[in-house]
Amino acid sequence: MTIHPDVQAALDAARQLRHRIADMRERIDDVRARRPSPSGTVIPEVDAMGRLTSLYLAPGTTDRFTSPELVAEIMAAIRESTQDAARQYQGIMETVITENAEADSDTDSEAEGREPAGVGEVVR
Fold first, then answer.
1. What backbone torsions phi and psi does residue 35 show, to the nearest 5 degrees?
2. What's the CA gap between 101 and 94, in Å, rounded?
3. What integer pLDDT is reported at residue 37 of this predicted model?
4. Average pLDDT per 10 consecutive residues for the chain, totaling 124 residues
5. What are the residues facing 55 on neighbouring strands?
6. Is the overall model pTM greater than 0.85, yes or no?
7. Cβ-defined contacts of 11-19 (< 8 Å, 24+)
8. What CA–CA distances, in Å, run from 4 to 1, 17, 89, 119, 122?
9. How far is 70 from 49, CA to CA, in rounded Å?
10. Residue 112 to residues 6, 14, 103, 116, Cα–Cα distance (Å)
């Protein structure tokens, strides 16, 4: 059984889309941002969604700061890390959009020479 060229093109496009989505998800899963606090004694790790995944406190950090100062150090570092993760995420999304636009324009130019499904020669 032969598959109509338009159906095959749709199947190919769906397969390519699945691969692009999987690649995008993998790149997003790999995003990690580690921005130090103003003093450099606190380093959080944040993922692409802004979730705290790890927190490093240099030895003696808790003795060096008062509780409010330590909170300020931690929060500042988390804010910076979250902003960095957001920039990385945005970069991935912009790359994916650009790649998709290029792929779509390639597909459109290939399809221009074909007739739509169900359109055949005019019967006279």
1. -110, 125
2. 11
3. 96
4. 90 92 93 96 96 97 96 97 96 82 66 50 41
5. 44
6. no
7. 13/107, 16/103
8. 10, 20, 39, 12, 19
9. 24
10. 12, 19, 14, 9
